[in-house]
Specification:
The structure is a single chain. With about 400 residues, the protein is an alpha/beta fold. α3 links the parallel β7 and β8. α3 packs parallel to α4. Strands 3-2-1-4-5-6 form a 6-stranded antiparallel sheet, with helices on both faces. The chain has a 5-stranded mixed sheet with strand order 9-8-7-10-14, sandwiched between helices. The relative contact order is 0.10. Helices cover about 30% and strands about 25% of the residues. The protein contains 11 helices and 15 strands.
Amino acid sequence: MPYVQEELNHLSTPRTRFKNHFEAPLMEAFTSSYSYHREVGMATVPRQKLTREHGEVISTAVRLLNDEIHDTAPLVSSRDLVDGFSLYNRTRGTLYELYFRSPSVNTFRHLRVFRPFAPVRVVGKRTGVERSDVWVNVIVTLQGRLDRFKAFVKMYVDVCVKQDKRVFLTVVYFGTDGREQAEKILKKMASDNSYEHYKFLTSDLKFSRGRGLQHGAEDLKQGNVLMFFCDVDMVFDAEFLDRCRMHASPGRKIYYPIVFSLYNPDIVYAGKSRPSFRDQLVIGHETGTWRKYGYGMACLYRDDLFSVGGFDLSIEGWGGEDNDLLKKFKCSSLEIFRAVDRGLFHLYHEKLCDPELSDGQYDDCTRNRAIYEASHRQLGLRVLNLNVS
């Protein structure tokens, strides 16, 4: 136990030297039913139901306290928990302080529980990841939005055609309005860059992102190829393509990158000189936020998509198809690899929520409009009619 005691001493010893008051350790609180979080905002919940880890800690504390109680004394239960506090340290572990109600008036039973991290150890064999010959098949669905598509194609040329050179692009276009112009944009890109690794597919059905992505996947005839489900609002770099290759594994793993969503530039740079497009791709608290609940972007192999039945083709319009597919993967033997990706940005665009969407889709759409418009601070200042600086 010396290691555990050493870690506990480091975690619980008061720190007297802080660069500023923000470094002082802050505990989060919980009861027998809920935990309360200090990190709040438009995309987070200040009160949540207890996690399994909280339940394990409370059960352990109850068992330890009851082991010390004499036969005639009443036993402690989780309902007697008055207050719980946790202090998390990313290198040491988590310290818990628990206070239970005692039969005696104004008396509480106090217990400290420590869940340490083990020392760093290498697990498994050291392996190499060889993906140099793997092509990424980017699939994009589209209806209208030709200006945005032009910008996407320009980014695609810079990253995929000129840098990576191992990417195939499939565009699935819905409807006839703007179809001819979109195809001309692709053909001009191919002609200007002597590029032939692309395909333009069409559909006269009502727009459905899931249906379009599935159509694009079905059209890939080269076998079990690597696919990247993408949107025209995305900007990515060559390093992201390598992570797509590394983190997706056929028959084993799906890569769901967490995208950094940029806020409305009219709000972010209000009263300021707006920087160049590339200089706006900055990960910061006031420039955007991680789309931690978005599962629309994915790197996966073709056979893995169809092994779970593919997309639900009955879902139309905005949203829902990605979560449905994720549930199928979670019910399979495939591993979900989920992490923030510093090379993947979602560009801001005005979102209009169609009243004809289902209730769930419409609620999700309006919620996303609010979350990804601006930071909590920026929106608050606008509501109060104050300058954002």
